[in-house]
Design brief:
single chain, 425 residues, alpha/beta, Lyase, Ornithine Decarboxylase, Chain A, domain 1, TIM Barrel, 12 helices, binds ligand LLP, Diaminopimelate decarboxylase, diaminopimelate decarboxylase activity, EC 4.1.1.20, decarboxylase
Length: 425
C-alpha cells in the first residue's frame, strides 16, 4: 500500500497534505513516510526471522540521521562506504558492530576509525587493500575481520552506470583470482577471514542474476572450505529495484519472493554439502528500503511555452536530484492538486544553467504557475547525491508520521555554503 495518495484532490504523505508541508517548510523539500520506511524494512526482517541473517542497510541511498535511527531501532545494520558514513551511524545511535565497510578506496584513516569502532567486517576489494588493512590493524594491535568482495561476472541487466559485478567494473576481486586472494588473506596475521561478499548492481528487476551470483559464491565457499578456509558469513549485496512508475516498466521482484528463493537455495546447499554448518546471510539493500518512501516536493516558478517545447520551470533542479541528468532516469512527476485544469505536455526543468538540468521530459501535467509538483519514488539517491551547484542550498527533509511532520534536515542557507571559504589576505 502506498503511503502517498490523493485525498480530496490533494496528494498526501500519510495523513498530511503535501500543500501543508510546502506551506510550513517551503520548497524544494524531500518528504518521507515513516510507515513506508518501516514496511520496507519489515519485508526484509520478516523474511529473515528465525534465521542467522543481518540486513545492513546501504546508507548511501539515504543517510539522514532520522532514517538511520528508525532503521537501527528495527535492528538494522549498515553498509558504509566512508568514514563519514560510519560517523553518521554512530551519531544516529546505530551499532558499529553491525556495520560492514564496502568500497574500493578505503584510506588508512578510515580503516583506523572503523577498527576503533570494532565494525563487523571490511569488504575488501583488492590485494593492496588487504595489505594496507593488515598493516593498520597490526599497528593498532588488532585483527580486522574481512570478507572478499568477489566479482561473480554476472550480468545484472541494468543501466551500465549501476552494474557493478561485470569483469570490466572496478569493483571486487575477479572470480578466477578469488581463491589465490583468500590464500593470501588467510596468511596475513592481522586479518581474520570471516566471509565473502558480492554486489552485482542496482535497480535489478529480476532476482535471477542475484541467485546466479549466490551459486557462484556457494561454489567458492565450498572450495575454500576444502582448503581449511572456513567462512562464517555470505553477503549477497543489495540491488533489488523498485517500481518507478514508467509506462511499460517491468515490475520488480517482491523482496519476500526473492528472499524466499535465496534462503531455499542456502538451505538446500547447507543440507547437502555444507554439513549443516551455520552461515550468516547478510544483505545490503539501499533503494528497496527507501526508494518509494519519499517524494521531492517542488513549486512551479514559471510555465514557458516555446516553439517546440513547453517548459515547466520548477524550484528543484539537478543539484537536488541527479538521477535524470546522470542516468537519464525516468522519475514520475505528479501535480499535488491537479484540480480540473487541462493538462499540457511539459519538460520539467530546474533553474540551473545547464541543458542537462531536467527532472522529467514530455509529461502531461495539469499545472499553473505557483502550483506544487511531487517527484515520486525519490527517497533513494536523492539528497545523498545532491550538490550545492550554483550555490543552491540543499533541500529540506521532512518525515511524516501519521498526521505529524518532523523536520529532520533544515534547508541550508547561502551563508552556510561559503562559511568554510576565505579570501587571500
Ligand atoms: N552494496 C554496495 C556495495 C553498493 O555499491 C550498493 C549501491 C548497494 C549495496 C545498494 O544497492 P541498492 O540496493 O540500492 O541497489 N545512484 C544510483 C545507484 C548507485 C548504486 C551504488 N551502489 C541510482 O540513483 O540509481
Amino acid at each position: 500500500m502506498s503511503q502517498f495518495a490523493y485525498h480530496n484532490g490533494v496528494l498526501h504523505a500519510e495523513g498530511v497534505s503535501l500543500s501543508a508541508v510546502a506551506e510550513q517548510f517551503g520548497t524544494p523539500t524531500y518528504v518521507y513516510s515513516k510507515a513506508a520506511l518501516l514496511a520496507n524494512f519489515a519485508a526484509y526482517a520478516d523474511a529473515c526471522r528465525g534465521r542467522d541473517a543481518l540486513v545492513c542497510y546501504a546508507m548511501k541511498a539515504n543517510s539522514n540521521l532520522a532514517i538511520l535511527d528508525l532503521l537501527a531501532r528495527q535492528g538494522a545494520g549498515f553498509d558504509i562506504v566512508s568514514g563519514g558514513e560510519l560517523l553518521r551511524v554512530v551519531a544516529a545511535g546505530g551499532d558499529p558492530r553491525k556495520v560492514i565497510f564496502s568500497g574500493v578506496g578505503k584510506t588508512v584513516d578510515e580503516m583506523r576509525l572503523a577498527l576503533d569502532h570494532d565494525i563487523l567486517c571490511f569488504n575488501v576489494e583488492s590485494i593492496p587493500e588487504l595489505h594496507r588493512l593488515n598493516e593498520v590493524a597490526g599497528s593498532m594491535g588488532k585483527r580486522a575481520r574481512i570478507s572478499l568482495r568477489v566479482n561473480p561476472n554476472v550480468d545484472p541487466k541494468t543501466h551500465p552506470y549501476i552494474a557493478t559485478g561485470l569483469k570490466a567494473n572496478k569493483f571486487g576481486v575477479a572470480f578466477d583470482d578469488a581463491l589465490a586472494t583468500y590464500r593470501t588473506a588467510a596468511q596475513l596475521p592481522h586479518l581474520e577471514v570471516t566471509g565473502i561478499d558480492c554486489h552485482i548492481g542496482s535497480q535489478l528487476l529480476d532476482d535471477a542474476p542475484l541467485l546466479e551470483a549466490l551459486d557462484r559464491l556457494i561454489e567458492l565457499i565450498d572450495t575454500l572450505g576444502a582448503e581449511g578456509i572456513v567462512l562464517h558469513h555470505l553477503d549477497i549485496g543489495g540491488g533489488i529495484g523498485i517500481n518507478y512508475g514508467e509506462a511499460g516498466e517491468a515490475p520488480p521482484v517482491a523482496v519476500a519472493d526473492y528472499l524466499g528463493r535465496l534462503f531455499a537455495k542456502v538451505d538446500a546447499w547447507r543440507a547437502a554439502r555444507h554439513n549443516g554448518a551455520p552461515i550468516k546471510v547478510i544483505f545490503e539493500p539501499g533503494r528497496s528500503i527507501v526508494g518509494n518512501t519519499g517524494v521531492l516536493l517542488t513549486k512551479v516558478e514559471f510555465l514557458k511555452h516555446g516553439e517546440e517545447k513547453n517548459f515547466c520551470v520548477v524550484d528543484a533542479a539537478m543539484n537536488d536530484m541527479m538521477r535524470p541528468a546522470l542516468y537519464q532516469a525516468w522519475m514520475d512527476m505528479q501535480a499535488v492538486a491537479p484540480g480540473s485544469k487541462p493538462a499540457q505536455t511539459y519538460d520539467v526543468v530546474g533553474p540551473i544553467c545547464e541543458s542537462g538540468d531536467w527532472l522529467a521530459r514530455d509529461r502531461a501535467l495539469a499545472v499553473e504557475q505557483g502550483d506544487l509538483l511531487a517527484m515520486m519514488q525519490a527517497g533513494a539517491y536523492g539528497l545523498t547525491m545532491a550538490s550545492n551547484y550554483n550555490t543552491r542550498g540543499r533541500a529540506a527533509e521532512v518525515i511524516v508520521d501519521g498526521d505529524v511532520c518532523h523536520l529532520v534536515r533544515r534547508r541550508e542557507t547561502p551563508a552556510e555554503l561559503y562559511a568554510l571559504e576565505s579570501v587571500i589576505k
